[in-house]
Design a protein that fits this description.
about 200 residues; alpha/beta; Maf protein; six-stranded mixed sheet; 6 strands; globular
């Protein structure tokens, strides 16, 4: 398997929270993260049928346009009572304005609509894909973390659905946790550990 060399790596995301989290994870490895937004790269339509499909699509486009290796993340919240939704559509539930307060309210309303028997089990999934510009090779890794949905949302840290997700065995939501604690156990950290073992 191909290795990632020290130097510039495009983070194929326009989400500042996600870019910051990935940059922190990459810090110890001599990688210089550059965000797609900083390079003025377009955001592709996420037309894949899975998290891995969408991560590869984003990484391949960023690598092609920048001429640099690119790392993309596709991640989302899957709720058991909603048959895995919002899943790959997690960002779309936040609408054009990317208002995740509205997205969390929609999740809560749809779970409540399922009735008192509906459980509150959920998990976050993260797919990380690295693509190289010269030959289009991609390597992908998937991670997950299981938890429960809470309402109302708690905490100002993190982003997305973090404030309504309490990982199994913890008293705090991702939104309440110190970022370092979240990074150590998140779906992104799980996928990242696999990426580091394989590529760095």
């Amino acid at each position: 398997m191909r290795r990632l060399q020290p130097g510039k790596l495009v983070i194929a995301s326009h989400n500042p929270g996600k870019v910051r989290e990935i940059a922190d994870l990459l810090g110890p490895y001599g990688i210089e993260p550059v965000s797609a937004a900083d390079l003025d790269l377009p955001e592709p339509d996420e037309t894949g049928n899975s998290f891995v499909d969408n991560a590869e699509l984003k990484a391949r486009l960023a690598a092609d346009l920048s001429g640099l290796p690119a790392l993309a993340d596709d991640s989302g919240l899957s709720v058991d009572a909603l048959d895995g939704r919002p899943g790959i559509y997690s960002a779309r539930w936040a609408g054009e304005s990317k208002d995740f307060r509205l997205a969390m309210e929609r999740v809560e309303e749809e779970v409540l609509a399922k009735g008192p028997e509906a459980g509150r089990n959920a998990h976050f999934v993260c797919a990380l894909s690295v693509c190289w510009p010269d030959d289009g090779q991609c390597e992908s890794f998937e991670g997950r973390v299981d938890g429960l949905l809470v309402w109302p949302p708690r905490g100002e840290n993190g982003f997305g659905y973090d404030a309504m997700f309490q990982p199994i065995g913890r008293e705090m939501t991702f939104g309440q946790m110190d970022p370092a604690d979240k990074y150590a156990m998140s779906h992104r950290a799980d996928a990242f550990r696999k990426l580091v073992a394989a590529l760095l």
